[in-house]
Amino acid sequence: MKDLYISDEMRRNGVTKGEMEELFLSIFKSSYDGIFVADKKGIGIMVNQAYTRITGVGSHELLGKTMKKVVQEGIVSDSVTLQVLEDQKPHTIVQNVRGKEVLVTGSPVFDKNGEISYVVTNVRDISDLNQMKNELRQSKKLAERYISEIEDFKKRELIHMHLDGIVAQSQEIMKVFHLARKVAKVDSGVLVLGESGVGKEVIVNYIHQESDRSGYPLIKVNCGAIPEHLLESELFGYEKGAFTGANSQGKPGLFELASGGTIFLDEIGDMPIDLQVKLLRVLQEFEIMRVGGTKTIKIDVRVVSATHKNLEEMVEKNEFRRDLYYRLNIVPIKVPSLRERRTDIVSLAFFFLNKSNKKNKFNKRFHPNIINFFENYEWPGNIRELENLVERLVVTSDSEEISLNDLPDGFVQGNDQINQEKWKLKEILANVERRIILEQMAESKTTRRAAKELGISQSALVKKMQKLNI
What we know:
Elements: H1 8-13, H2 17-30, E1 34-39, E2 44-47, H3 49-55, H4 67-72, H5 80-87, E3 91-97, E4 100-110, E5 116-125, H6 127-162, H7 171-184, E6 190-193, H8 200-210, E7 218-222, H9 228-236, E8 237-238, E9 251-252, H10 254-257, E10 262-266, H11 273-285, E11 287-288, E12 297-298, E13 302-307, H12 311-316, H13 322-328, E14 331-334, H14 345-360, E15 365-366, H15 368-376, H16 382-396, E16 401-402, H17 415-444, H18 447-454, H19 458-467
Parallel strand pairs: 6-13, 6-14, 7-10, 10-13, 15-16
Antiparallel strand pairs: 1-2, 1-5, 3-4, 4-5, 8-9, 11-12
Helix pairs in contact: 7-8, 11-13, 14-16, 15-17, 17-18, 18-19
């Protein structure tokens, strides 16, 4: 017993060999870890109850059998006993016992001649360890996601620093801003495409402010809002006496006023075909001639245009000049519709809510069901429609909390009405799930016990709790 440490009191009491053997047998039986003992031939001779509890393997399946046969029968995946007998030294392995992973350590017991007489195997349940490992892995993934979100947030903050009012967090719109920042540093022509209300003008503002021309004017022209007979004189200016009612001193055009900066030609698809020829010359020569003038004026201006129309189709129908189209469309930027960047909808809704609250000195808030509606609605009018609706709801709702009941009459029609009912059902089901989980958690205290009572895995329960904001 030279490697066995016992107290002085036991030594003084003179514990007999029989008493010591009885003590060791009690320890063997009561050990929380599983213990299995094989002889020098690898035949099982002893196993405690803890082994059966941990592995589910009964003593009759091990005792009297060689470990080689136990492996062949598929009871265990591998035998640490056989490894110890072969190498004459301790071994630790992860063993699969009928689909369950356990940590087993085999230790040799040598006789006085230095030969192995027994192999003692200690078995430990590592399901808790695996659970901790999975939780650690999930925590690591969560940390990585947070880091990624922080990096994205920094990028978004950089955009906010330049232009107040931009809400951009979806990958779809961030790609647009990334491209816009690239082209801002050069003078190549940019054609911004997208449905009405998607925020094309915001992209143009961003391009201008990121460019070296940001200290100079950004002149915006809506080609569809100016009468056709006035558009040319507005763009290129006119000399005195050029036409009846003209300013006696003449007037510089918007291209001249934008010199050094950027001119934004919005709704370029509405420009008259005859004026397109003159615009093409400006883009080729970077010089203009005023209406009624006789000499050209050099200009230094960057041209950015935008339209919600399909210019390619207009070109095929001879409604838009092909050469002008290619001149404008050097770098196209397609702004996605709101339904294509749904992860931005809620952020935009809250942005407009805060903006409207501040403007009207209110303190309105959203009910979860209206948020659900925002996320699932198609938004044919895009961001402009969302902004207008949020302001309308803020102004017209009777209570502090804006809900589905505050939506304007007829706003949700046809299939959308069916979807609305589905959202209500979804909300009801979510509330039921939330209540059941909260009650079970209050009773079970831990997610592991609660998951067992609910008949689902712990990871599934954790995901549900995160989804339900518990």
